[in-house]
Design brief:
There is one protein chain. The protein has 330 residues and is of the alpha/beta class. It folds into 2 domains: 178 residues, TIM Barrel; 121 residues, Jelly Rolls (Sandwich), CATH 2.60.120.1540. It has an 8-stranded mixed barrel, surrounded by 4 helices. Strands 10, 11, 13, 14 and 16 form a 5-stranded mixed sheet that branches. Helix 5 links the parallel strand 5 and strand 6.
Length: 330
């Protein structure tokens, strides 16, 4: 279900006024203008009152025409402001393309975003612009992982890549634009909680080593999908067969699956296939600063197999990631 948010620049509404609009997230700014920027108090107070925060860096409207050098400079400025207000190192930052981009200008826009990524990394970069700009950047490699589409310069069209839509409505007596989320993870802070972070409970047996089966291995290097789960390289994914939990000729009982990593945060796309032929797809963050070194993937009766691969934008694709399948007989 889409969430409603408000995009606030210079207005200073109270939290109760913001919530009266039905908003559950607030979009705020980093910029060269300190009177419009997100503050440390907002970073503290919005989440404490049930409001997520989205951040966008904006300077001049056509700043992206400055290409890579401008992207590097703006990302560096955004990082300084992020640290100053206390947002964490994994915070997503959108960068605003606030004009009607023409065909001859798209190369500069893409270069700008690649300059941004050289500073903050692809996994943290977001792009704001009209329909045609979003479509162009989304189709260009190594540019952005999140997309926020404006109603302006869109001719009534909406991109399927958009994580946020700014549909042209206003709130708070015109002091805020209205936005709607299109995905569960739209780059908000605090980061979404759908990524499982609990360590698995260890199976137990009656002391007979034949009652426990353990399979281990490694997740292939390289990226199997982009941040939205779209396939990049199927050969970079791994298929794992699962013992039939609470069944099968061997009389299996519980089955546990876990992944472990270190050095840097790795995001995994895990698709579990059950006996009804339905895939259950989830994303899991493991390893690195502030993330668990080991995560579990829930396995249910009827689950038969799974495929797992790394998601682009998290790590460099070479960090060691191991898996462990544990099963016990009844």
């Amino acid at each position: 279900m889409p969430l409603t948010g408000v995009d606030i620049a210079w207005a200073q509404p109270s939290i109760s006024d913001i919530k009266s609009t039905g908003a559950t997230f607030v979009a705020r700014y980093f910029s060269p203008d300190s009177t419009k920027n997100l503050t440390a108090a907002e970073v503290r107070d919005y989440p404490a009152n049930g409001l997520s925060v989205v951040v966008v860096f904006e300077s001049s409207s056509n700043r992206m025409l400055g290409g890579s050098a401008a992207g590097v400079a703006d990302a560096q400025a955004a990082e300084l402001q992020r640290r100053a207000v206390g947002l964490p190192d994994d915070a997503v930052i959108y960068f605003a393309c606030d004009f009607d981009v023409q065909g001859s200008q798209f190369n500069a826009v893409n270069s700008y975003m690649r300059g941004v990524n050289s500073v903050i990394g692809l996994g943290r970069s977001g792009f704001y612009g009209g329909y045609f700009a979003v479509e162009n950047v989304a189709a260009s490699p190594a540019t952005a992982s999140y997309f926020w589409q404006a109603d302006a310069w869109s001719n009534g069209q909406w991109s399927s890549h958009a994580n946020i839509r700014q549909d042209g409505g206003t709130a708070l007596s015109g002091g805020a634009d209205v936005d709607h989320s299109e995905t569960a993870d739209f780059g908000q802070y605090p980061r979404p909680t759908q990524y499982v972070s609990t360590a698995p409970s260890a199976p137990h047996s009656n002391g007979d080593e034949d009652d426990v089966a353990i399979t281990t291995g490694s997740v292939p290097q390289g990226f199997a999908s982009d941040i939205k789960g779209n396939e990049i390289d199927r050969s970079r994914s791994l298929s794992i067969s699962l013992p039939p939990q609470n069944g099968g000729a061997a009389g299996w009982g519980g089955v546990w699956l876990s992944f472990a990593a270190d050095f840097a945060t790795v995001r995994l796309r895990v698709a579990v296939l059950n006996s009804a032929g339905i895939y259950r797809i989830n994303f899991f963050d493991v390893g690195g600063q502030g993330k668990p070194g080991r995560i579990s993937v829930p396995i249910f009766d009827g689950d038969q197999s799974l495929s797992v691969g790394r998601v682009q934008g998290f790590g460099d694709g070479t960090e060691p990631v191991g898996y462990l399948v544990e099963a016990v007989r009844k």
